[in-house]
Structures are given as C-alpha cells and as structure tokens.
C-alpha cells in the first residue's frame, strides 16, 4: 500500500490506535470523532494501550482541546482499564 493511501476504518465507536503511528493522532482522533458525531455515535472508546502512557497522554491532550468533547476518562476494568479512554461527545447541532 502507498504511504499516502487512505485507510478505511469502520466507524463503530471504537478506535484502536495500535495500527497507527503517533504522528497520525493529530488528524486521526479528531476526524474519527467528528465522523462518530455525524453518525450519532456519542460514546466512543479509544484504545491506546497501557505501555508507558505516552499515547494515552497524547490522546487526552487532543481530547482536551476539542470543543465537541463533553468529557473523557480512563475506561473501567470491563472496557480496557488504563489502556483505553472513554469519550462522551456533544451531539451535532442543527
């Protein structure tokens, strides 16, 4: 696959970042969340893995800057614990 070829992701409310490089996060996370909102999916789970926490901190920094993110927190034991972040989105107005 070419480097600039788009990757098609299912928009189902779960974004697994394991297949992506950290450089992709700045556009991937907002684009995915905007598409979720467009489809009416307002509760999203972002899987960043447990590791050393670099990816988690990057994801949460991005989330804190998005005006349509109502809230976010680490997942409970049943949804990935500290390896995932749960995001609550505001609905699209209009």
Task: Briefly say what this structure is.
It contains two helices and four strands. It has helices at 25-38, 54-65; strands at 14-16, 43-47, 69-74, 84-89.
Query: What class do helices, strands and sheet pairing give?
Result: alpha+beta
Number of helices: 2
* Basic shape: globular
The fraction of residues assigned to DSSP E strands is 15-25%
The SSE order reads EHEHEE
Indicate the mean pLDDT. Answer: 89
Provide the gyration radius in Å. 13 Å
Describe, in plain words, how this protein is organized in 3D.
Strand 1 (14-16), helix 1 (25-38) and strand 2 (43-47) form a beta-alpha-beta unit. The model has no long low-confidence stretch (mean pLDDT 89). The protein is of the alpha+beta class and 94 residues long. Strands 1-2-4-3 form a 4-stranded mixed sheet, covered by helices on one side. It is built from 2 helices and 4 strands. Helix 1 packs across helix 2. The protein has a domain at 11-45 and 69-81. It has helices at residues 25-38, 54-65; strands at 14-16, 43-47, 69-74, 84-89. It starts with 13 loop residues before the first strand and ends in a 5-residue tail after the last strand.
């Amino acid at each position: 696959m070419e480097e600039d070829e788009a990757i098609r992701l299912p928009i189902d409310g779960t974004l697994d970042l394991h297949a992506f490089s950290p450089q992709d996060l700045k556009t991937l996370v907002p684009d995915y969340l905007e598409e979720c909102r467009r489809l009416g999916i307002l509760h999203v789970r972002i899987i960043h893995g447990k590791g050393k926490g670099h990816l988690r901190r990057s994801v949460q920094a991005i989330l804190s800057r998005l005006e349509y993110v109502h809230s976010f927190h680490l997942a409970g034991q049943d949804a990935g614990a500290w390896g995932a972040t749960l995001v609550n989105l505001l609905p699209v107005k209009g």
